[in-house]
Amino acid sequence: MLHFLLVDDEPGHVIGFTRLLGKLRPGDTVSSARSGEEALRLCEGRMFDLIFTDIRMPHMTGLEFMEKLDPANRAKVVVLSGYDFFEYAQKALTFGAFGYLLKPVDAAKLQEVFARAEQMSERERHDRLRQQELAERIDRMEPAYSGKLLQAWIDGTISGERLTELKDILPLNGAGTAVCVRRKYSFGREEAGRIQSRLREYGDCFCFVSEHDDEELICMLGDGIDPQAAGRVFEEPELRLGVGHLSAGIGSRRDHLLEEAHISVREARFARLEQFYEEDQTVFAFGASHLDRERIPALASAAETALKEALRGGDEQTAKNALTAIFREWRSRPYPLPHRLRDKCKLLLVKTIEDHDILREGSLHDDFLREIEVLTEHAAAYSQLEGGALDVVVRAVRTIKEWKENHRHQLVQRCLAYIDEHYRSDISLESAAQRFGLSAGYFSQYFKTKLKINFTAYLNQVRLSKAKAMLEHETLRVYKIAEEVGYQDVKYFNRVFKKEFGMTPEEYRKTIRILHQKRG
Hints:
Elements: E1 3-7, H1 11-24, E2 29-33, H2 36-45, E3 50-54, H3 62-68, H4 71-74, E4 77-81, H5 86-94, E5 99-102, H6 107-145, H7 148-155, H8 160-169, E6 176-183, H9 189-199, E7 205-209, E8 216-222, H10 227-231, H11 237-240, E9 246-250, H12 257-272, E10 283-285, E11 291-292, H13 301-313, H14 316-330, E12 335-336, H15 338-354, H16 362-378, H17 382-422, H18 429-435, H19 440-451, H20 455-473, H21 478-484, H22 490-501, H23 505-519
Parallel strand pairs: 1-2, 1-3, 3-4, 4-5, 9-10, 11-12
Antiparallel strand pairs: 6-8, 6-9, 7-8
């Protein structure tokens, strides 16, 4: 029993042709689609023995529908055409159509098509039986060889004797192509078998899990399979499971695949590396690769300097902009190999950390180096590498800023402690600045910014505060108190004291004594 698909946007044509098919082939099944888009969806989920399609349809013509079909289904298309569109039918034949029929359809011509279709169906049945037999032979072979023979084959280390054994078992005696598929978790043997069955809808093939890495699946395609059409199998949602989750590389066609499998596998693995840059893409062909084996990622000195200066200045946004510009240049085509970009990124980040004394200190330094090592070792995509590098740079900027803020706070406390300890001495702005290794101008501005008072005024406040306490509790003469708090000139001391408190030191002492007597 055959299964037909009729594609026509005219309901009357669909009903009439379906009735004709029912009379001529009462035991067969007919499905219909009102548009090319609907027909494509039906073809995704099943295989039809024949597909009858009209040429003239809105949105998608019959020829456009054919172009979007995979080669296996395209070879089963029968074009229905009016006399005025005979040239379109001829063009359909160049696309690989099974045949064409002129409207109105002649029953005898249609019977001829059915006869050919039955012959084709019988050939396909024999092919399936052959594939099943081959699959059984392969299944018996794999446990005996434990995958090592196949691994030696794709590594190019297989002996001539073992290669002869493979020729008797594998359905690949001729030209073909290797496809290497990789994802972030392991392939099982049963899953490899299901993928192999799916690919066998297109022709001879053989799939197995790499002996060295169970996250890699190797698929060898016979010459009858269009690699690009087969590649669409790996774009199906149940295999992809998210952007960047799976990638498939297609090697070049080799005239003698059994003998040259290792070359095509090596090319397929190389092509697959491009997903590092093109994360939304799944299938990559070696012949169309944008990778450059020879390119070394360059780093302009101006860009590196801009990044370093931004870090020194604590400018987070400028640092991010500088690093983004560097990565933008690295991503230009042709792309450098991913491992070279990761190495260059590692070198840049390590130099950035090493160029700052603050970041070279102890455990902080070790933490940064570990973070850079993990990032550049495991980044599986360009965006992941760039994002991780930005995180490192931002953390470095914030670490430097935090250190400087803490250092400034500590400097203020040290300044105040210094004044409190040495106010009796002849200290000045210049001597204090020199004590902390700063210029007098910077120290003066820094002190006033932090304490909202200049250095001399604050020193006087400390001295006068100490003098008041001594005047209240001690009986020393005023000139002696002046000396004790750092004033060598008693007249100057009297003048400064009166300006601050509105009375001379002696008047202040008398006032305090009177207050004490009244309270007593």
